[in-house]
Amino acid sequence: MSEGQKFQLGTIGALSLSVVSSVSIVICNKALISTLGFTFATTLTSWHLLVTFCSLHVALWMKMFEHKPFDPRAVMGFGILNGISIGLLNLSLGFNSVGFYQMTKLAIIPCTVLLETLFFRKKFSRKIQFSLTILLLGVGIATVTDLQLNMLGSVLSVLAVITTCVAQIMTNTIQKKFKVSSTQLLYQSCPYQAITLFVTGPFLDGLLTNQNVFAFKYTSQVVFFIVLSCMISVSVNFSTFLVIGKTSPVTYQVLGHLKTCLVLAFGYVLLKDPFNWRNILGIMVAVIGMVVYSYFCSVETQQKASETSTQLPQMKESEKDPLIAAENGSGVLSDGGGVGVGVQKTTAPVWNSNKDFQA
User: Fold this and answer.
1) N or C: which end of the chain has fewer CB within 10 A?
2) Across the strands, what pairs with 335?
3) What is the pLDDT of residues 221-237, one digit of tens each?
């Protein structure tokens, strides 16, 4: 099996794991929050991250992956930013209507595209832009209902979108810049995310629910669903880093909207949630957008692969010809009167590197 086929199988596996685990945890948390009354979402997320870190620590002890330390400041900043983005999303949901919160989630894709275009010089073809527009339109029809605006909720939503976009872009950038796997990055950043949410979680949850998480009555049923939710979260957190590392932040957001549609469909089929023609039409349009996006991404990836394979023989031929090599900046150059090796270097900021982001 070729490396390309292995990569494709790995990507499909990561996407499948992300969908299954995310839908499962939504169902579990819905039972925990709606049925059992445990509404402390931020504190629950901090427990998810603590369990994830403990699970990864056991996996490291069993030598299932290798610990690879790198820039501690980058890890700390990334972990804290991730924790802040989760807290802001929860606050946005608490201070806004459900419809406006869905609009906030929809805004993450165009914001990510804008940031990558401005700061990373990544180019998105018109076909990709068109497919994303279809996707966002479908999800909007299916999920957005009322749009009640308020100043505090709007500010929180803007901050949530920005921090979420930057955190997801950093996930992709850090993995490729420091050559670390999704597991290695998750293991090192988990403690910072968990501590950030563990400290702020009870305060945020108390602000949103007017209840104290420590005064809640923990029945055996509540504890069971909390433990189940934490166990599923290990797969959710791992698959998140895995998908962003193998694809891109935009693809991960597209996958997130697929999960939303699946959750809506599941709620209608099994839980008999309210459903109308808008939900059905929106899900159909969103699925079309996802299929078109996947198709165009596959076509562009194949084109890039063929271009790369065509350029490699040309580069090898140019290396054999000294004249061509000198014209390409890879011949022998004089440096300060001496003779030096002719590798011409062009220094550019790492954050502007296009090679870190492939659609």
Assistant:
1) N
2) 338
3) 999 999 999 999 888 88
Measured CA distances, 220 to 4, 43, 86, 223, 224 (Å) = 48, 19, 28, 5, 6
Residue 281: CB atoms within 10 A of its CB come to 13
Q: Determine contact, residues 2/238, Cβ cutoff 8 Å.
A: no
Helices (H), the chain: 3-30, 41-61, 72-95, 98-119, 126-143, 151-177, 182-209, 220-246, 249-269, 277-320, 322-327
And the tokens for 109? 């894709």
Q: In sequence order, what DSSP letters do the residues of 231-254 get, joined into one string? A: HHHHHHHHHHHHHHHHS-HHHHHH
Contacts of residue 320, defined as CB under 8 A and 6 or more positions apart, other chains included, come to none
| Sign of the torsion angle spanned by Cα atoms 310, 313, 319, 321 | negative
190 is written with which tokens?
């988990």
Write the secondary structure of 273-319 as one string of H (helix), E (strand) and C (coil). CCCCHHHHHHHHHHHHHHHHHHHHHHHHHHHHHHHHHHHHHHHHHHH
pLDDT score at 355: 33
Q: How many domains does the chain have?
A: 1
Q: How far apart are CA 122 and CA 308, in angstroms?
A: 18
Beta bridge partners of 122: none
Query: Has residue 194 been placed in a domain?
Result: no
Does a structural domain hold residue 292? yes
CA distances from 249 to 49, 210, 244, 284 (A): 20, 35, 5, 23
Regarding beta strands 338-340 and 333-335, do their DSSP bridges make them parallel or antiparallel, or are they unpaired? antiparallel
State whether the Cα torsion 200-204-207-210 is positive or negative: negative
Q: Which domain holds residue 299?
A: 122-148+248-305
Q: Give me the mean pLDDT over the 307-329 stretch.
A: 51
Give a yes or no: residue 284 inside a domain. yes
Specify if 79 maps to a domain. no
